[in-house]
């Protein structure tokens, strides 16, 4: 069956190619009448030009010399509609296309249609990549192989060799990949991803629970504190610490008492503690200060864990509304006016400092001494009697 020849208009439409038209016309003439003369071809050509089109006007204006032979007509045609030169990309531009030619994760193990044939997606990708490598003139060497290989889905990369020296070997291995192994790798990767996500979810839940617990503890303390004073209720039927809590005498993080002599801190240790105080500033007892304090506590827990020990390398946040560190303060409540062993706050009282803050204040005082004693504001506890009246400061 003869190839259909579309009408030619010659109006530079994007869907029309003058050179292709002449080729299709010649093929049609050879099929219909291989023995047709030049005169017959020239006469038939008029029937394939659009009515009133620039092409028909050109045909009507042909001179006798231009109509002398079919070759003369073709020459006149090409002079009127010269072949448009195709854009030619450089090797570097083809290499850029090659790097942009990626295999999607969802295409692993999928089927694509090429023409009327169904092929595996990784096979289609490999053939296209190989063609780009040929156009870039790098198919005989290892140029860009490791970059392209690195961009492949993880399931594909795991089944390939570590190194390749030519694109042909690389692409042949991709095309020869077992689809069953590819699907198995994908399933294993998804399973590991699911387990990692579950583990991350559990960790985030734990961090959120820790944060809520810390926030609740701070809120409870804020309800008992003011900048200048803290109320300590004596209406509770709780027994004295000496009877109810026989082991509440102050100890540092429950470490056993050592009989070795106390060693003076070195200048290096002092500098570490000074920098620690700078890293965790003591905020005022206002809304902004409390917000920053809560952020400090959360950051400390996330970095060190809620059961970590306090050392000179893990400076701990200071509660807003308490006395300046190293100012002769009580290490139990963070206030002035009494020594730690005489602190009127009971174990578990909301006015008491956390164990970690107590340890940090003791560590700072032992390392640096009470160097802030003469510049710190005096902040004291106020005792409230059974009727809620202030009975004096401690």
Automatic annotation (TrEMBL):
Question: Coiled-coil regions in this chain?
Answer: 179-206
Q: Give the GO biological process terms.
A: mRNA processing
Question: Where is each CCHC-type domain found?
Answer: 330-344
**InterPro entries cross-referenced by the UniProt entry:** Znf_CCHC (IPR001878), Znf_CCHC_sf (IPR036875)
Compositionally biased, Low complexity: which spans? 233-244
Entry-linked Pfam families: zf-CCHC
What are the alphabetically sorted keywords of the record?
A: Coiled coil, Metal-binding, mRNA processing, Zinc, Zinc-finger
Q: Domain of life here?
A: Eukaryota
> GO terms for molecular function, please?
nucleic acid binding; zinc ion binding
Record's compositionally biased regions (Polar residues): 245-263
**What are the boundaries of the region Disordered?**
232-263
Q: Which SMART domains match?
A: ZnF_C2HC
Q: What is this protein called?
A: CCHC-type domain-containing protein
Q: Which organism is it from?
A: Pisolithus tinctorius Marx 270
* UniProt lineage: Eukaryota, Fungi, Dikarya, Basidiomycota, Agaricomycotina
